[in-house]
Amino acid sequence: AGISGMAVYTPPCRVALKDWCDWTGNDWKKVSNVVGESFRIPGHNENAYTMAATATLRLILNYDVDPARIGFLGLGTESSTDNSAGSIIVRGMVDKALKELGLPRISRHCEVPEFKHACLGGVYALKSATRYSEVDGGNDKVAIVVASDIAEYALGSTGEQTQGAGSVAMLVEKVPQLVELDTKCSGSASDYRGPDFRKPFRRHFIKEYGSNTEHGKIPDFPVFSGPYSTMVYLEEVTMAVENMLGKL
């Protein structure tokens, strides 16, 4: 199984990092080398679900996917706002749009899980969709994985220039058209090290954190240590690569 198609959505609101450096007095050369040229921010009426639904609908339309064949719709995110539901919220918006276009809705028997994890949510969703296609879906069903996130940081924080928002949807089939994924040869690694990057619910009750932004939206700023998080990331990637090489 593997990937047969992709569709992307990015919010229209864009911040050029060169302008950001002029505003904040940061070194443009350093920022451009480490981060890039710009970042996107969601509009006041956008969130992880709306972006995911937009990317998913684009995927269905661009690749002429029969909604009745979709047996798995997995959402990978760290930005969801409902702890009781998975991608059913995304499905609801997509079904509504399909109906307005005169198209059939997604299969009534579609699985709708969510994979909540910073950075890795989309990867876990993709691996799960690949396994679904190999074992459950067969040639009759297809899977869709959508990774959608809003990474926001407080003004003046060390992570401000690394923020962004967007969504990518991937079509997964047993006989892929773009790239085959062999999960048996994939590598993984994990180890609990204490907080390097967290979004604990309790932070919303800390006075210094702030309960609302100027637009009335609850902020989703993380509690993090940049240097420690980078060190942990590099070590776990190294361990995962070694694990993968041992399977080849």
TrEMBL record:
Keyword hit for Transmembrane helix: no
InterPro entries documented for this protein: HMG_CoA_synth_N (IPR013528), Thiolase-like (IPR016039)
Any one GO BP annotation for this protein: acetyl-CoA metabolic process
Coiled coil (UniProt feature): none
Keywords: Transferase
Domain Hydroxymethylglutaryl-coenzyme A synthase N-terminal: 2-172
Pfam entry (one): HMG_CoA_synt_N
GO molecular function: hydroxymethylglutaryl-CoA synthase activity
Full protein name: Hydroxymethylglutaryl-coenzyme A synthase N-terminal domain-containing protein
Taxonomic source organism: Trypanosoma cruzi
Taxonomic lineage: Eukaryota, Discoba, Euglenozoa, Kinetoplastea, Metakinetoplastina
